[in-house]
Amino acid sequence: MTTEIFNAKTQKENGTNYAGRVIRAGGLVAFPTETVYGLGANGLDGEAVAKIFEAKGRPQDNPLILHVAKKSDVKALWRHIPDNAKRLMDAFWPGPLTLIFVKSDIIPEEVTAGLDTVAVRMPEHKTALALIRAAGVPIAAPSANISGRPSPTTAEHVLADMDGRIDVILDGGPCSVGVESTVLTLVGKPRILRPGGITKEMLEQIIGEVEVDPSVLRPLREGEVAASPGMKHKHYAPDAEVVVAVGSWRRIASIICREYEIAEAMGKRCIILGTEQTRTCYHGMNCDIIGNRDLPQTLCAELFSALRRYSGKVDVIFAEGVPETDQGLAYMNRLLRASGFTVLDK
User: Are residues 120 and 56 in the same domain?
Assistant: First the structure.
């Protein structure tokens, strides 16, 4: 298969219209969103959706998200729209919030991994919305990467993983948020299954108390079911060992300096993913400042790019943990899963 690439800015109309026809014909299209690049197929066509799993090497028990172009599209995808969903859509759609509720009968099992619920979101990206409108169907899409690898935030990342595996890539430049959408289930008490750019605090301003699923910061236990993408299987991992240090930023810097020296003495190639606050702490060590601890959204925006940048080029990536509040929860969720929950706190 030859993968065609369209520049979403200079080939805007031709690219999205052609890609929409590819979706309707049962093909696969990678497209930009504000979060990460998605790998899309016709969300109402089980055979087309199955191609996503094949291209990614994605486990079949990992459900997908349906992407829509307008709020009213949800009427056909859920049994009904609960009141709290309406309030959340008005507040955060289009945007990086995915909502889960009881699915309608038109949703194929390939999308839901056999669950009786389906996840839906309306992205806030002009190219993504134009593609959905051109396709005329909801688009099922996980991140456009080989399963388990860091999610792609540029078209170049997608091409590195998907060249020859999919039909089309729409290049819309770098993604602004940098981590996948918040996933909130509305079945029972509202509960965050995957944190993202829309935080617990922001959600609670609209609908009151929201729980955070315990699996956000730990692996799923035996017998627990993955109700959302990113819950069950190892995710976001580069070709390198990832080690997370936690605590105060001064303590984190001390831990990383010690462990870096030990690893280097063993002949390992190392990189530190540092922050503005620790910029002066790693003298003589390889360090990449990827954001500000006080603004965790800056870390989210750069994390996957940094993991890809050093994948296969170093043996160990040392990363700084941050407080698990606001966007810090999303950052720590991705970082912990990338490390396989390898944490240093002493």
Answer: yes
